[in-house]
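Protocol step 4 of 6: record predicted structures for both targets in the notebook before any analysis. Target 1:
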Amino acid sequence: MQKDDLLTKVKALSQDIKAVFYSVGHVPIVITDEHNEVYYFWQNLALSKATLLHIDAHGDLEGTVHENSSLSNNYYQALDINNFICPAVHYGLVDLPLYWHNPHSGETLQFGPDNPGAGRIKGTSIVDMFGHPTIQWRPNPRLSSINSYPGELVDSIAVGDQFILDIDLDAFSCSGHVHNMPLRYNGEYGYEERIGSTLAMLRTLPTPTLVTITRSQCGSETYVDPRYVARVEGLILAGLARYLPNSVDAAAHNDQVKP
């Protein structure tokens, strides 16, 4: 898809589900309230084997979700905020390995078939669960984003031809529990520093094909305090506006991260 066509398509999709659309240069940015809504864009843009960098206070890697047997374009409505990545891998929208960066811990974790031990995900499979075809991870169908699969720590990211930068604003200010952090940890404050360190990392990466941002304003499950969400959103958008026009070349970047 040509860059201008991509912008036009993303803008139209944003209007469909009342998401907010921006663009920086030729990079489309969409902002949703709930995280599963980003799947609507991934699916309807017909992305294929995209590299996913998921920036979030939570892994969102739960792995039990009903199959999209009717091939609905609104399949995102059947998903939850913690399990939309698994079907994205199953339907070939997102490739393995995938990456989760948690600014609260400062760690980037990789999940893929070549990882040793806990970070290993071979792919997905369909199983029957109470009469419903259900998508699960392989080899561990009981995947938990924090306990069963802590992932493999990495210090570099290899990016393919398509690159999704997926950001949850609770990555910077989280009013609930943050994965891989102590229970008493307070993740609401200090978001300026977390945004700064994340933008510094992003400046080393190629230009994304698509940026999806979630405000985590999910009714009773609000993970970013409404008092801070506009401020956090404004800071990350301003940072993206500075970084995206100066993104590094993908081929040069991948040459640097090869083992």
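Target 2:
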Amino acid sequence: MKLKMRVNGSFYPSHPLVLDQMMSQVSWRDGMQGIYKAMGLLLPHAGYSYSGSTAALGYWKVCPPKIVIVAGPSHFVEFEGIALFLGKTVETPLGDILVDQQVVQEIVTNHAFCREYKPAFLREHSVEVHFPMIKKFWPETYVVPMILGNTSSEQLQLLSETLKNIIQKKEGVFIASSDLSHYPSAFMASKIDHIFLNYLLENDEVAIQNQETMLLTEGVENFFCTHCGKGPVSLLMKLDKLMKSEKIVLKYCNSGEVMNSNHRAVGYASVVFSMQTL
């Protein structure tokens, strides 16, 4: 069974040459490739014209792992627990990627809240947009796609302990797929996002939750959330508490800056959770 492309032609180019050229631009701007051995990354999942260069920089800067676990939020389907893809391959315009079925089975076997749930993947872009970049920058890497539905903090803590063992055993990387603030002005997005990133660097989940509550209470114009990938980011932070990485913000931007518009922006960041600088 293959996980088919759904948002090619809209979120990223369908034509392999156009797609490859778009992603190659990051290497033209920064020749220092693979300088971090990482356990995790926070990367955005908007269309490539908005956040592609920000996400690509994370892949460019991190040494290719043997396995990458890509965790995104569910934008369209509400469900309990975590959906994993149990098939053999993931489709991209640059060629298919192999799924590490052994790791998928280990997660599903050890955690009842992790299961196959095909509807979660039917329209979801939050994991799919990462697959072409994985194929481009880490071509030999196996993937484990997961989409997070409604989960408890206790469930994420249990899963983080399993993922720690997998990452250490398999030389893996965990990717938390999330955009940052949604829909304030570009000016406010930058302020909100840099506060969020400071709390992320401090690994302070409570402060992140309090920041969002405060902004909603204050009624910041058009503000919706500090980050859409709450489950994936929380899982990454719990994993980081176990593995104790050095966190580096590689790049920040927002859609207002990219499109030269101050209205209803979304923030994007590339953050590496590094275990070693090479």
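Step 5 preliminary note on target 2. Residues 109 and 265 are 41 Å apart (CA to CA). The chain has nine helices and eleven strands.
Proceed to step 6 after PI sign-off.
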